[in-house]
Amino acid sequence: MDAPGHPLNLLCAGAAQGLVKALEPRWQAETGAMLNARFGAVGALTEMLAAGEPCDVMVVTDAMVDTLATAGRLDGATRRPLGRVRTGIAVRSGQDRPDVRTPEALAAALRAADAIHFPDPVRSTAGIHFAGVLRELGLHEALAAHFVTHPNGATAMRALAASTARQPIGCTQVTEILYTPGVLLVGPLPDAFELATTYTAAVSRRALDAELAERFVTLLTGSATLALRRVGGFED
Fold first, then answer.
1. What is the pLDDT along the chain (236 residues), one digit of tens a residue?
2. Is the distance from CB of 12 to CB of 36 less than 8 angstroms?
3. How many Å apart are CA 97 and CA 91, to the nearest integer?
């Protein structure tokens, strides 16, 4: 097929950024279509969509796809899940991995840290949740001076990797941790605080080429890329 004369515009949650980047060369080779991807927190992406940002495909939480399909912004018939992503704890490469398997162990690891990196606690799925975990542990006010917040989880993990703090720690979606060089996944949040979020792709009602957009959704979510999603942290 001839290469389209326009890029595929993607608004994508940070949890799927690594997957999209890994598939971009294959997508361009198979279709000839350039990929114009914007990554960010789910709240920020919905604001972009509402403001008229070009969008052919959107990847956000399954719950947000529901909301946007009901509002007529996404085509609900095209929705396909990428998988479930847990929220985890990370440290800079070279650090010892602390025990975070219980609330008490997580609290001790956070108290020992001199910098705590996490995404936007207002508009990011993981950031909102982690701020709640800190409050449940009774640590939000006590450790606030060590908080280093970022627009999204990918940015938070890059900052953690580059941190010059003595013992930094971070929290975001497991996919963002696994795809970031220079950080190590310690483990998911303790069961009492587990957040497992299903991410879903859907075609925008404003898509310039709905057939091309559906082809991208199939690539992201289909069986041909299942192994890549599993390695990157997406679960059933």
1. 456 778 999 999 999 999 999 999 999 999 999 999 999 989 999 999 999 999 999 999 999 999 999 999 999 999 999 999 999 999 999 999 999 999 999 999 999 999 999 999 998 999 999 999 999 999 999 999 999 999 999 999 999 999 999 999 999 999 999 999 999 999 999 999 999 999 999 999 999 999 999 999 999 999 999 999 999 999 98
2. no
3. 7
Taking alpha carbons only, the member of 100, 80, 98, 84 closest to residue 168 is: 98
For the chain, the residue count is 236
- Tokens representing 69? 């399909």
Cβ atoms of 68 and 58 closer than 8 Å: yes
Question: d(Cα 17, Cα 50) in Å, to the nearest integer?
Answer: 21
Q: How far apart are CA 64 and CA 79, in angstroms?
A: 11
Instruction: With both helix axes pointing from N to C terminus, report the angle between 17-31 and 210-221 in degrees, rounded to the nearest 10.
Output: 130
Who's near 223: CB < 8 A, 6+ residues apart? none
Q: How far is it, in rounded angstroms, from Cα 137 to Cα 160?
A: 22
**Tokens 């609330």 correspond to what residue?**
103
Q: Which helix (H) or strand (E) holds 138?
A: none
Residue type, 42: V
Q: Specify which residues 11 forms β-bridges with.
A: 38, 58
